Amino acid sequence: MAEDPTAEPLDLLVRSTRDLLRPEELVREATRDIVKDEIRRHIEKKLRDDPKLAEELRDAIRQLLEARAREYAAILRVAALSARLGVSTLPEDVRRMISQQVVSLVSSELGQIAEKAL
Predict the structure, then answer these.
(1) HSE (CB half, 13 Å, CA atoms) of 7?
(2) Given this model, what pLDDT does residue 1 score?
(3) How far apart are CA 39 and CA 105, in angstroms?
């Protein structure tokens, strides 16, 4: 629907609000939330009824999170090594300048992290 550039701001607001609050969308979202809640309750009951299954699920989730953390650490390491390789190919004066800028940036970031932590 093309908007009339001469329309009053209030008219535009009412039209856009009406579009946002279409009843069929609200009903669909509410129904989806009800179904999700019912499924969640069913799963929680099954886990309460079978503590061994619940423990195995917790262990599997912990292993998944640890694997993701290792993956991110490996990605960071590859990125750092790639940056080191790239910097090593630069002329000495440019390498020195970049190194100083990186040290300054890291020092600044670490300072901000320390301030937030304290």
Answers:
(1) 12
(2) 47
(3) 48
Is pTM, for the whole model, over 0.90? no
* Average pLDDT estimate for 27-37: 94
Inform me whether the pLDDT recorded for 3 exceeds 80.
Answer: no
pLDDT digits (tens, 9 = 90+) for 53-62: 999 999 999 9
Rounded-to-integer distance, Cα 24 and Cα 56, Å: 41
Q: Note whether 95 and 88 are within 8 A (CB).
A: yes
Q: Tell me the C-alpha distance between 20 and 18, whole Å.
A: 5
What ranges do the domains of the chain cover? 10-49
The 3-state secondary structure of the chain, one letter per residue = CCCCCCCCHHHHHHHHHHHHCCHHHHHHHHHHHHHHHHHHHHHHHHHHHCHHHHHHHHHHHHHHHHHHHHHHHHHHHHHHHHHHHHHHCCCHHHHHHHHHHHHHHHHHHHHHHHHHHC
